[in-house]
Design brief:
With about 280 residues, the protein is mainly α. The chain contains 9 helices and 2 strands; from the N terminus they run H-H-H-H-H-H-H-H-H-E-E. This is FAR-17a/AIG1-like protein.
Length: about 280
């Protein structure tokens, strides 16, 4: 059951009543905002620097083709999530009411699902790349080393930060549906790219090199791996909530001088930006 309707929460409490997406159990809102903003900026700088490099080295076609790669799509997702996460935290810090709280419910739920994708997909990208796709003899240049490390290693660090530091609750099981559905849609995009552009985005999807059974095994393996990663992330977040809130009593770092009704625990807690409870 989604956390905003779980047992103990009032039906009229609304979406994310204690601002879990915008606050941290250990970082003051201003620090959480700054980190999210910097990481979002770095991700966008990485993406556009790669575009610039490709354009200046006669490889503009690589930039156009980049939108067919799951790696790039998930990295764009990280960039946008971190920017929007920073904006939500900043608006909470300034006004006491984050933008997210003012959005229509459908967009709030979409943001929650978006969060689930950005803490699950980067692990899949990193595992598949380094296990199946990374060049065995190293990268040809410093730029290639940096760009691939940013997109296939630091992406996991982005996911880990959002798992450990905000006050988000465990991923609802219902979010497995968009996780699997988006993977299925991407598979369709991969083969649509082959049909329209004449190349396979990933070698393990190449039906000219591999039998149908081998390709199917890769697809099913990634699907099963995604479900396993989802479950691991869910229970790591559950462990974080249990340790920080139940054992350490860290209700969260909130905006100074305001109070928030913590509907999830049926109490009102004083909010001090440097307080742990």
């Amino acid at each position: 059951m989604p956390f905003w309707k779980r047992s103990g929460a009032r039906e009229d409490a609304g979406f994310d009543p204690s601002f879990r997406f915008e606050t941290s159990w250990v970082l003051p809102p201003v620090v959480l905002f700054a980190i999210r903003a910097l990481l979002g900026l770095y991700a966008f700088v990485t993406l556009f620097t790669i575009f610039g490099w490709n354009g200046s080295h006669g490889m503009s076609v690589e930039s156009r083709h980049s939108f067919s790669y799951f790696t790039n799509l998930t990295y764009w997702g990280l960039a946008f999530y971190y920017v929007f996460g920073a904006l939500h935290t900043c608006s909470y810090l300034i006004t006491g009411t984050p933008f997210l709280a003012r959005w229509p419910r459908v967009l709030q739920v979409a943001h929650s699902m978006f969060y689930s994708t950005i803490v699950v997909y980067p692990w899949i990208v990193t595992a598949v790349y380094w296990a199946l796709l990374a060049p065995s003899d190293g990268f040809p240049s410093i730029f290639a080393t940096w760009s691939n490390s940013s997109q296939h290693a630091l992406n996991a660090a982005y996911a880990l930060f959002e798992i450990l530091f905000p006050r988000t609750e465990p991923l609802p099981f219902l979010h497995l549906v968009p996780i699997v559905l988006l993977l299925a849609l991407y598979l369709g995009l991969a083969y649509l790219t082959h049909a329209t552009e004449g190349f396979y985005v990933y070698d393990f999807l190449d039906l000219d090199k591999h039998s149908d059974g081998i390709v199917a095994a890769y697809i099913v393996g990634i699907l099963v791996g995604s479900i396993i990663v989802f479950l691991i992330v869910r229970y790591v977040i559950m462990l974080r909530v249990w340790i920080t809130e139940k054992k350490l009593g860290k209700s969260g770092k909130f905006r100074r001088g305001t109070r928030v009704g913590d509907e999830e625990h049926g109490k009102s807690i004083p909010l001090h930006s440097m307080s742990g409870k």
